[in-house]
Amino acid sequence: MSVPAFAILISCLASATLADDFKTINGKEYKNATVFCVEPDGIVIKTKSGISKLYFSELPQEVQERFHPGSQWSAQPPAQANEEIGITQQQKLEEDQKREDEAPRNLEIEEQKQRAVLAKAESIRIPYIEFRDVTVREAVEFLAAQAHDRDPGGTGVVIGMSLNDTEPEGEPIPRLTLLLQDVTLFQAVIAVAQEIGLSVNVISFGLDIYCVHREFPGRVHCYEVSKPAP
Predict the structure, then answer these.
(1) Domain count of the chain?
(2) Do 161 and 173 form a contact (C-beta atoms < 8 A)?
(3) Considering the entire predicted model, what is its pTM?
């Protein structure tokens, strides 16, 4: 009676999970070892004291025939290796699923932080602002100081700039002259950005003044305000 191929395969993989004793032709013994990997020139075994590679040239003939490439055993990876690979893949799937499940919550937290930044920027009022031929960096530093001084909590609002004082082509960003009265910090930041064609984005830790593209001369305005949904 012939044994079905799948039964032979199951038996082969099952035996691979069992610990075995190996002895080289030089007499060195490896007790209770598990074959971890079969390579073209030998096998890699794992024992309680470590991992070792045994070359076919140092193993008895019967062991070579059992594990040598082309044998039925080596045609399949060790069951333990299969199991470890399966565990790694399962862990990755679980981590990916966890990130996917947490994405809506993380987005909600991000939006809450943005709304908090916007609320504070709109609660801080500045009675009078006068800029005369100043750089945008100087204006931002002044507004950041005003935000700190006029915030009852003393923390203010972070105002960042995702740009340098000059364009990539070396053309300086225009200086600005501006007069504002009784405005919120958010209105003041928008006014500064709008004056020289920049954009304002409300992010989780502050206000960001930036511009994706600018062209000089002509000052093509890319002004917009990105606010979190109410």
Answers:
(1) 2
(2) no
(3) 0.51
